[in-house]
Structure prediction request, 304 residues.
Amino acid sequence: MIYKKKVTLLSAFVAVLALIYFLIVFFDSDRRRDPAFAWLPSSLHNMAQSIEIFGSNGLIVLNRINGFWFLHDAGINYPVRQGRVDDLMTALSRRDTYPVRALSAEARERLGFGETLQSRIRITGGQDLLLDLLIGSGDALGREVYLKAAEKNEIHSGEDRFTLFTVAAMNFWLDMRLFPQASIADVQQAEVMLPDGESYTLRRGGGGWFIPGDEALVLDGPRVDAWVRGLLEAEAENFASEEPESIEASINLRFGDGQTWAIFIGPLDERNVRQAQVSESSFTYLISEWTGGRLLRERNFFIR
Prediction:
């Protein structure tokens, strides 16, 4: 009997210890795993109409118009790299654990949420506020950042996927490609007029390239293809506020579906840049001397 009582008491003691341990683990916030969530559920993506990004380069405003995003600046909507906006939305919609690190006003100041707050992402859909995310300072290793919903007191931490967008300058967002997206095979002809008055045409045919009127010349096909690829991938340095005073050179591309796309290039100015206009676009672009030199190749460049 004495042995059975000892076993019973010992079992009860072990059960009490197990219960105490369970309660400690359950109520200890440092041990409890925070549930995963997303700052902006993907179901809200299609509702987003405006994104305001406050960062180290000031305020950047992106507006969605007819399904496409534009950067609004000084009353003008500039074209935006749609993939960059998709990357931002993907980062905000990624489900992850964001443990609560602090609640107090003192902690908010210390972790970068005081009056000198520099980073914020605000997304609205019409009159509806979809997200107002404050981004504080980073941790000592630079891998995580402190995050806080504007309307809440809890300060979370998580992998830093967001400061890439808040420190980015305006050019990070702008789509300054000169020609439309197309493959090399889509381009059937290129008509080139150079600043010195020389003009020539490159035409695709017979499995390669030739110059109409000078079919006897043998062209370096891979070199022509590389030049065409460079045209399709060429980007301006920035948007210009004024049109070029004169047109010094031009390139006209003809595509297999009958479309044409032309760029008209002004003279090199004292800043070593050229103003350029592209058909089907209302903007004027600034292209560097280096970019202009790669676009405006002499005819002999393509001859083998």
Residues 55 and 200 are 48 Å apart (CA to CA). The chain has two domains: 36-173, 184-302. The chain has seven helices and 19 strands. The first helix runs from residue 2 to 27.
